[in-house]
Amino acid sequence: MILHRSTKDIYTFIILISLLVTAQAQFDNTIQSHVPATPTAASFAKYAEIPVSHYSGTASTSIPLHTLVENKMSHQVSISYHGAGIKASEIASSVGLGWTLNAGGVITRSVRGAPDERIYDGQLTGYWLDGVNTTWFNNSAQRDQIKQGRRDIQSDLYFYNFAGYTGSFYFDQAKNVVQRNETDLIIKAVQTTYIHNRWIWKITTPDGSVYHFGDTSHTDGVADDVVSYSQHYAQPKNALGAPTTTSTLVDSWYLVQAQSYDGQSVITFDYEYEAYTFRNLGTSSRTIVDRDGRNLINLNESSFNNLNPVLATESLSPRLTEISTTETSIFFHYGPEKRRDLDHDFNTNYHPKNVVPIPPAQVNDATALDYIEVKSLSPSGCLKRFDFGQSYFTSPAIGFTGTLGLTQYNDVFGDYYADMRRLRLNQISEQSCALTDNKTHRFTYKSNTFQRRLTYAQDHHGYPNNRTDNITLMPQLTIQGSANQVPKIDLNHLATLADRKPNAFYTEQMMLDSIIYPSGGSTVFDYEGHNHYSSDVQETGSNLVDLRNQNCASPQPPPSCTSCCLAQELTSPVVTLDPSSIIRHEMRVTVTKTPNDNSNTLIQVPIEIKRGNANWQLFDEIILNTANEFNQVKCYSELLFEQAGVTDYRFRISADVNRKLFMQLLVKKYERTDIMRNIAVGGLRIKSITDDPVIGPSITRSYDSQL
Question: I want to staple 399 with a disulfide (CB 3.0 to 4.6 A). Which of 83, 142, 455, 689 is the partner?
């Protein structure tokens, strides 16, 4: 994709527009669920996963606040907005949803299998600490330990963001750091002897500057380490749940010191801790598609809404309080009100704040960033401050069922759970320390209300698509070949599976709309969804056979109708199945016991086919019982029921005439055509940016994405 920009003129504003794309880091742990990074670390990781590039067409807005200078070193503090789209599960940073406080730096990670340094209790090996023994793969007990996450066989992925450097790395089997995109940085893991944090990090830049993450010393104890600790567990929908282990994960290491090559210039970063809990939907449990690619094995439609566990993350995370040089300090002050978009219900015994020996006086409630103060140390005095004006985005109580056993709160917008609120940045004001000379940037958004975080209404990449009738994240997967090939997988007939198609309109509702400057001018953003031009197959379907038992329009007949949905033998007339290579056929059988049948004995539903002049043959038999809740939908591709050289077919299903059930046998014909078209893929890019100055005409920069 090539991005073209057209404009009549370019104005320079204090707001810097750059182009960038993101990908959310994934975290795969022993319970095989998505474990997100803490909100602050995750907002940093956005910029580390994929670097700034005009190629992506995604806008990030940056507002510089102050630059600290210490002889040969400097450090800029800013806030920035990431314009690739807000994912449904995204949690706001302490600044606001979509915004990142660029102050300090972080190394965060995506755990693959289990932590590299073997930190979980019950974990037998860690990739970095113990290596991998290939004999494990030939031993069934040790293979099971790998599946359980007790033996770690691959490196975690690590992401860094500091001083303008972003990137990622992993370890090879010799414990060497391998950067995914080669740079001149020297990255070193320093092992400690602590129980709760076994690593700190040192990164040396090409100019010889050294940046320390987590701590500057590996021998002075864990209490002063600046790392993010978290505990993760799956939670029942209507109960609080609890961790099954006392061991905490270290998911991020924060920048604590920057030092020039000669040691003469030092910038230090101080932190305090905050404790909170948040919840996201975990990934689906593994399921198996049958060889025909049309059915899920040993899984009922009624079970789909239990496939995505709620994953609770209990976090003890650093928040920045001061950046200092010998002459100047920047102080970060947080408000008194607990954040409404985070839970403050803790599991007393296992929350990291009760496991890691951090002094209680250093642990705070999670609150929003209130203001930033810049002070001179010599002479002592306040230079300026930045005040943040915030409120909350709201969400309706749809898209998820279950209370999680949590406390329901109330504010001016009504009753809510924490996932139905997200911190919103309304404005930032620069002013003197006497609170005069106010210069305010104001922010508006496309909508004040959008989907809750705990929602199945997500596209394939996790962006909101407003399909609030989804009850699972398992998609209606289709894998096409070409028009003259039968699809390898087609699960579209399973209506209870999720519609994960992107919807750019609803993704855009969560986005920054405009910035209004202190001068009165403004910048307005217009977005569009990402897509790619690709080959696809267009199908036109029609029914050749539609057999249904009489007086049974649906599986839910009127309760008063005792004669509705009586089982019977249903037989089709002769149908001709065209053998054309661009036509495919599919048979679908739906059988469901209706509420007016009070028996719990099994029901047998044989499916028979008559090919040409041959005799009737049993093709398959569906069994309804308590295990499948008396409900089955099965689909069969033509590869299973058509026979070479035969074009005429008859179909038949039957059941005990004393039973009552909804019965349907469909044979569908699909005419297929190869086409080229734009296919939506999720996420956003900039369509246009309009600058409206106080004096003079507005200027629109349009971005034409060509594939």
Answer: 455
Percentages of the chain per state (helix, strand, coil), in multiples of 5:
10, 45, 45
With a cut of 60, say whether residue 682 has pLDDT above it. yes
Pairing of strands 363-365, 266-281: parallel
- Reduced to 3 states (helix: H, G, I; strand: E, B; else coil), residue 343 is strand
Average pLDDT over residues 65-86: 91
pLDDT of residue 246: 63
Give the domains, in start order, of the chain with CATH numbers.
Answer: 2-112+155-518 (no CATH), 536-675 (2.60.120)
Q: What DSSP assignment string belongs to 569-585?
A: -EE---EE----TTEEE
Is residue 200 a contact partner of residue 253, using CB atoms and an 8 Å limit?
Answer: yes
The first and second tokens of residue 610, run together, are 């008559």
How far is residue 454 from each of residues 82, 366, 404, 517, measured CA to CA in Å? 22, 20, 11, 35
Reading the block at residue 13, the tokens are 């504003």
**CA–CA gap between residue 250 and residue 355 (Å, rounded):** 13
Q: How far apart are CA 25 and CA 45, in angstroms?
A: 7
Q: How far apart are CA 352 and CA 316, in angstroms?
A: 6
Q: What is the pLDDT of residues 599-625, one digit of tens each?
A: 999 999 999 999 999 999 999 999 999
The DSSP code sequence of 358-412 is --GGGEEE-EEEEEEEEEEETTEEEEEEEEEEEEEEE--S-S----TTPPPEEET
Q: Which neighbouring-strand residues pair with 603?
A: 624
HSE-up of residue 6 (Cα within 13 Å, Cβ side): 4
d(CA 264, CA 261): 8
Say if residue 505's pLDDT is above 50: yes
Q: What is the pLDDT of residue 240?
A: 64
Tens-digit pLDDT profile for residues 290-328: 999 999 886 554 556 556 778 888 899 999 999 999 999
